[in-house]
Structure formats: C-alpha cells, structure tokens
Amino acid sequence: MSDKAQLIIGGKTFEFPLITGSENETAIDINDLLEKTGAITLDPGYKNTGATKSAITFLDGDKGILRYRGYGIEELAEKSTFIEVAYLLIFGELPNKQELETFTNEIRKHTLVHEDIKKILDGFPSTAHPMGVLASLFCSQTAFYPESLDPNRSAEGVRLSIVRSLAKMPTFAAWAYKNAVGHPVNYPDNSLDYCSRFLKMMFALPAEDYTVDPVVANALDKLLILHADHEQNCSTSTVRMVGSSKASIYSSISAGINALWGPLHGGANQEVVIMLDQIHKDGGNTAKWIDKAKDKNDPFRLMGFGHRVYKNFDPRAKIIKKAADDVLAKLGVNDPVLEIAKKLEEVALKDPYFVERKLYPNVDFYSGIIYRALGIPVELFTVMFAMGRLPGWIAQWKELRENKEPIGRPRQVYVGEKPRAYVPLNNR
Q1: Residue 277, Cα to own-chain centre: how many angstroms?
Q2: Are 138 and 253 spatial neighbours (Cβ–Cβ below 8 Å)?
Q3: Which residues contact 50 (CB under 8 A, 6 or more apart)?
Q4: CB-count exposure of residue 335 (10 Å: 0-12, 13-18, 19+)
Q5: Same domain? 56 vs 203
Q6: Which of 221, 229, 314, 364 is catalytic?
Q7: CB-based contacts of 324: which residues, under 8 Å, 6+ apart?
Q8: 247 within domain boundaries
Q9: Structural domain range at position 167
Q10: Distance in angstroms between the alpha carbons of the first and the last residue of the chain
C-alpha cells in the first residue's frame, strides 16, 4: 500500500500521508487539507472522520472486539474490578497491589460531598429527571473546587480532581434517585467497596436495616466495567470537545452526561424495559410482537437487539447475560415482565430471522433486565450508564490535555443567503 493518498481537485493533484494505527487501522491525514486545496470535507455525524489519535480503547464492530488499553473486555470482566479498570483506563496500566490500595483509599477519602450541595438538590422537584439532577450536581463541583479551572495546575491537582470525580459520582447518582422517590439521602459507608457503598446509598432506609447482596454488587461491578469506555461515541466526543477549551474536568464530564441523556445514546436500556412493559400490558403474547418485529411494514422494532457498531455480536452481552441469570436466580424475582424478556431472548437466539440478521440480545437488553430486577426505576437507567462510563470520560479528558490537542472547531459548508442589502423596517 502507498503511504500517501491522492486527491484531485480542479485538475490539480494533492497528496496526503496515510497513518496506520496499532491495530492496522488506516487514516488519511488531512491536517493541512484546507491550506493546500482551499476545500474542506463534509461528513455529517463524523462517521468517517477521526478527530484524534487515542491509546485508550480499541473497538472492532465487525469482529466483536472491545479492548481497554489492549486488554480484552472478557478477561477484565472476569478477573478485575471496576476500580482496577478505572485505574487502567485513566493511567494506562493495571495497578499493582500498592497502587490499587492507594487509589482505593484516595477514593474512599473523598466520597462525602460538600453539605451545601444538598441545598442544590433541595431545589429540584421530585419530578426532575435524575439525569438532569446528576449533571447539575456534578457540574457544581467546579464552583466548590475553583482550582480545577486552572489548566496549568500540578499533576497532583489533576489527580485530586480525578479522584473526587470517581468518589462523588455514586453519591450524586444515589442522591438523584432519592430525590426522585422523595426519600432522605444516605451518606456513603466507607467500610464497603465501591459498588456495595453505592447500593447502600441507593436502597437503605432509616426505618430498617439494609445488607448488600454480594451477587448483586458483583453484577453491578461487571456492568460498570462493560460500560467504562466505548471509543469516540457521542458523549465521549462531547467530553473531549468541551475539554479542548480547557474547561474544568467537572464541566466537561457534565456535558458528557447531558449528551448521554439523549435517547439515541444512553437511553437504549431504558427503551428495553419500556418495550417489555408495553408487551406485558398488551397481554404478554410474545409471538404477536415477534411477528410485528418481522413485518417490514410495521413500525415496531425490538429494542435491545442488534447493535449499530457490533455487526456480528456484542462481546459485552455474553458476559452480562450470565450476571443477569445469576441475579434473577439469587433474587428469585417473580416478574412477568422479566419472563417476557426471557421468551424474547430465547426466540432471538434461535429464530432464523434474527440469527441471519444478527439481531442478537445486546448489552442494553441484559442491563435493562438487571436494573429492573434490582428495583431501579427506568428513569435511573441512564444514570447507571453514566456512573459506569465515568472512567472512560476521565481518561479521554486526561489524554486530550496531556497531548495538548487544539480546541475543537468543526468546519461547515454554508448554504444560506448570499450578500444582500439591509431593508429598513418601514420598507419590509
């Protein structure tokens, strides 16, 4: 293969270098395209445009591969913990025993949030969507820690912001839930691990004792690992775009939370449960809805099946399916909606229509089932997604800053009016 690409415009030939990534991905470097040719590219949705070179996550949708820093997602989910994976994504290597202990203790030290943040929380009605609450609370940290605005602060200062983000996110997420249900907030119990601490803040009530089920905590840990990063998607690109202005880590990640809130991005697991409820209310006849899904003239689509990126299978789904089975078995949940989910899963894995079209159950399908079984309300599903995606957002923000990447400034092709004379108001 030639190490250059040629572009012909107006009879003139221009050459641009080719860049090859570590997994043999090829990119045309058009850094000086405008300077050389006077033209720009037009790529709505950036489907063919690489905005950066990143060493964090590799994704091959055709082959069903997802790796964090070179480690397969399957091995990480089986052998690691969410905090270990967070360290890996952010700092580039798996921690040794001492590094993990230090990092865990740092996070534990900063789980409490400033009491004045409760005043912000009190300003939200109980009807406020938890994602709006979460984005606001997370962004408020810029006000409480104004030193985070300094783009030239020390490495120790940056690490402190990173630790605070990881430590306080579960507190904010749990408080967003408590606000929605009208319950008093719980403070973190630092005797527990990361996921157990979050579950206790979520579900503990003043009127009764609460004990964290280790099966549930383990399933949640795996879910967070599987959602920790996913290359340059909408929310991650948003974090990098906002971060490129040298905005604080808190405002950058808050922007990512808001991007994730969109139904085309983080709301897929929520749509799964809404669909299951719809089928249940209709009488629970799964065969009827399977037929509707097969009917090309019917607008109904099965949510949680297939994937925009993964063309053969979602590697995360295989992992989380077992966690879902374990949770359902352990909790002994008797939920007709979850029974419908099992029937749909069975059909999708065997029916030639779904098999041939690779409409397999994806990670959103199984995560929606787990959250439903845990008693987490549908509107909180995307909050759970955000908590898992946090290490990836941090890693991407950190990489951007360390690489001294320029401020993001996409171009456009103007299609508006040509120059015209101003018409005075009385003459219009």
Answers
A1: 24
A2: yes
A3: 27, 232
A4: middle
A5: no
A6: 364
A7: 219, 366, 369, 370, 373
A8: yes
A9: 74-410
A10: 61
CATH number for position 55: 2.20.28
My answer on whether 79 and 40 are in the same domain is no
Let me know: does 88 contact 274? Beta carbons within 8 Å.
Answer: no
Residue 175 lies in a domain: yes
Distance (Å, whole) CA 106 – CA 109: 5
Q: Do 80 and 58 reside in the same domain of the chain?
A: no
- Distance, in Å, from the CA atom of 196 to the CA atom of 188, rounded to the nearest integer, reads 10
Bridge partners of 16?
Answer: 5
Per-residue pLDDT of the chain (428 residues; tens, 9 = 90+): 568 999 999 999 999 999 999 999 999 999 999 999 999 999 999 999 999 999 999 999 888 899 999 999 999 999 999 999 999 999 999 999 999 999 999 999 999 999 999 999 999 999 999 999 999 999 999 999 999 999 999 999 999 999 999 999 999 999 999 999 999 999 999 999 999 999 999 999 999 999 999 999 999 999 999 999 999 999 999 999 999 999 999 999 999 999 999 888 888 778 888 898 999 999 999 999 999 999 989 999 888 888 878 877 788 888 888 888 888 888 887 778 878 888 888 888 888 998 888 888 888 888 888 888 888 888 899 999 999 999 999 999 999 999 999 999 999 999 999 999 999 999 99
Spatial distance between the Cα atoms of 131 and 371, rounded to a whole number of angstroms: 16
Annotated catalytic residue 227: no
Q: Which region, left, alpha or beta, applies to residue 238 given φ > 0 means left and ψ of -120 to 50 means alpha?
A: alpha
> 193, 227, 307, 314: which is the annotated catalytic residue?
307
Per the listing, tokens 């990534």 go with 21
110, 163 Cβ separation under 8 angstroms:
yes
What residue spans of 149-298 are helical by DSSP H? Answer: 155-181, 194-203, 214-226, 234-243, 249-260, 268-281, 286-294
| Residue (of 221, 242, 220, 90) closest to 163 by Cα position | 90
Indicate if 100 and 19 belong to the same structural domain.
no
Q: What are phi and psi of 238, to 5 degrees?
A: -65, -45
Q: Domain for residue 417, yes or no?
A: no
Q: Are the C-beta atoms of 240 and 400 separated by less than 8 Å? A: yes
193 assigned to active site: no
